[in-house]
Amino acid sequence: MGEEYEVFIKSSVRGYHAYFVDASVTIGEVLACEREDNNAHDKYAIAVKNEAQLLVGHVPRELSKIFSRFLADYGDIEAECIGVRYNRGEGKGLEIPVDYRLTGNSNYLEKLVTSLKKGEPTCHLDISNIRKCRI
């Protein structure tokens, strides 16, 4: 297996309002991201779970298709909670600010970042440079 690379994307976990009674999240907690193939609302849905494996929300729809392909093809995604829950008042409910960490092949990550940047004006992403993983 080749060297692993990583890229960080600041965004949010959406839908926390539907889960916060049963599942809590603390700042600094690392959350697992996994494909949710049976989701009736988004065929590319990515479930985000806390350390207790309880669902806390989903990756925003603007990112879900690209993240779903990344998880299916090659990589790994986790999200670190970087702040307290909030509601922007745009009909998206409670959100949790996170820093998504995508780990994988440098060529695939380059293509992914290029694809995300094409749609960036609509979703306002803060995307780090791709770098070798630190062990």
UniProtKB/TrEMBL annotation:
Domain of life, per lineage: Eukaryota
UniProt xrefs under InterPro entries: HIRAN (IPR014905)
Gene3D superfamilies in UniProt: 3.30.70.2330
Short name of one Pfam family: HIRAN
Keywords: Hydrolase, Metal-binding
Keyword Metal-binding: yes
Domain HIRAN: 6-106
Protein name stated in the entry: HIRAN domain-containing protein
Source organism of this protein record: Porites lobata
